[in-house]
Amino acid sequence: MQFSAWLSVTASGFPYRKLSRYNSYVVVNLNIAIVHTPKRIAVLGATGSIGSQTLDIIEKHPELYKAQVLAAGRRADNLIGLALRHKPRLAIIGDESLLPQLRAALEPHGIATAAGPKALAECVEAADIDMVLTATVGYSGLEPTIHAIKAGKDIALANKETLVVAGNLVNRLLDESQSTIYPVDSEHSAIAQCLRGENAATVERLLITASGGPFRTWTHEQIAKATPDDALRHPNWSMGAKITIDSASMMNKAFEIIEAHHLFHIEPSRISAVVHPQSIVHSMVEFTDGAVKAQFGVPDMHLPIAYALGCNTRLSGAEKSLRLEDYATLTFEKPDSKRFPCLDFAQICLERGGTAACAVNAANEVAVQSFLQGLITFPQIFEVNMLTLEASTFVAVPEYEDFVAVNAEARRRATEFCKSI
Ligand code: NDP
Ligand code: MG
Q1: pLDDT of 98-144, one tens digit each?
Q2: CA separation for the pair 26, 8 (Å, rounded)
Q3: How does pLDDT run across 189-219, given as a tens digit for each residue?
């Protein structure tokens, strides 16, 4: 007999309604034995930076986790290799032209295959999925996340763009669902850890740390001439290309402020970014009595991923431990929005609300791609985002279809701006 047990947690008053979920077998014999079965996970973005670190954790803890679905975009060879290793029930490739290759390699091994955005969105609804890890890039994360919420699945959310684009809609859907979002982003994981056991009414401010990226000490003139290689050279973190460029422009920090607002229900004026070049303090919470709680750790995503997979619980056996004595100084600075104007998009988008952040996110995806292809300069990422925001249709109280339309329109406009700028 299989059953699921649910625990409710309300002590902190924060949006983590469930502490954990277990799938257990009860074998009735002379004695009763409870055997925990692994949590079955749909890993969306399996071939990427977050996806592969998630699979490391799953592989190290087969008693806790099983990769039930693996999905990727275009790297079919990588996906095939991962599927043969992890033996999921289903492997999905975003690019439909690659399905025959996937099918030929995996179906002889009893692994089902599928392709395209519809398959990606719908795979999360299956009865044998306990948790969905969303680690695709950009707008592509929104649809599967919405399907997962509607199906009542827990979500380990790496894809911050989902909350940037449609945070209010996601929160509305969460209110009507059994689903809970556990943040994977290191800053938001840090904040969730700092909030454990605290009363929501005593939170004064969230302080989101930022490494400052590769251009932290560069002048305006130097930044104007930055090449894709310069921008891809992140000082502390090894990540996918899109988020690495967003870190260099500090658009990533603007997105993280928006993400924090929707995750923790704190108004934007009480969320600030602080530059902390060592990336050891992953974020902080200031309380009404003046206390500031911080979470420290080495810059490595295994910890926040594992914390989210465990529904905000801790694993034993740290990947790497922090030796504070190796760091002579930890420093903190104010961010400079003159050199990094993309940071201002947090305030602009949160003040305007509606589809403003959706338009900026779409423009930014196009602009980052165009910068990487050498079509625009680094400072023009900001220009394309701003021009697109001002030119795009604005819907004040959007439904899902409005986000689809504004995303498509903003991409079209941003592509034109990238050609004409
Ligand atoms: P990567 O570029 O390394 O990986 C992206 C993954 O998504 C790949 O598996 C890619 O497949 C897949 N993918 C992309 N588009 C699609 C699509 N349309 N359909 C299906 N799969 C798709 O990105 P990261 O792992 O760095 O980032 C993933 C998300 O996590 C982003 O939203 C990022 O902001 C967030 N994040 C990342 C952090 C990090 O340390 N990397 C830290 C905090 C947040 P393929 O390669 O086969 O095309
Ligand atoms: Mg982050």
Answers
A1: 999 999 999 999 999 999 999 999 999 999 999 999 999 999 999 99
A2: 22
A3: 999 999 999 999 999 999 999 999 999 999 9
Phi/psi at 399 (5° precision): -100, 175
For residues 386 and 221, give the distance between their C-alpha atoms in angstroms, rounded to a whole number: 21
Question: Is the pLDDT assigned to residue 19 strictly greater than 60?
Answer: no
Token representation of residue 84: 């043969």
Ligand 1 atom 5, closest CA: 48
Closest Cα to residue 145, out of 137, 130, 133, 129?
A: 133
- The residue whose CA has the least distance to atom 26 of ligand 1 is 240
Residue 32, pLDDT above cutoff 60: no
CA angle 417, 419, 421 (to 5 degrees): 60
Please report which helix (H) or strand (E) contains residue 395, including its range.
Answer: none
> How far does the centroid of ligand 2 lie from the alpha carbon of residue 105, in Å?
35
Residue 20 pLDDT: 37
Q: Is the per-residue pLDDT at 402 higher than 60?
A: yes
pLDDT higher than 70, residue 15: no
Rounded to an integer, what distance in angstroms lies between the CA atom of residue 209 and that of residue 206? 10
Q: What is the DSSP letter of 157?
A: E
Distance CA 353, CA 332 (A): 30
**Burial of residue 348 (number of CB atoms within 10 Å: 0-12, 13-18, 19+):** middle
Q: Give strand pairing partners of 413.
A: none
pLDDT of residue 28: 38
Nearest CA-CA partner of 323 in 286, 278, 276, 274: 278
Q: Beta-strand (E) ranges in 212-288? A: 271-275, 281-287
Q: Residue 369 is encoded by which pair of tokens?
A: 């791609």
In the three-class reduction of DSSP (H, G, I as helix; E, B as strand; rest coil), residue 393 is classed as: coil
- pLDDT of the residue at 33: 58
Q: For the chain, how long is the longest CA-to-CA vector?
A: 77
Q: Which ligand has the nearest atom to the CA of 300? A: 1
CA-based nearest residue to 239, from 213, 267, 266? 213
Distance from Cα 296 to the centre of ligand 1, integer Å:
25
d(CA 372, ligand 2 centre) in Å: 21
β-strand pairing of 181-183 with 154-157: parallel
Q: What is the mean pLDDT of residues 322-349?
A: 96
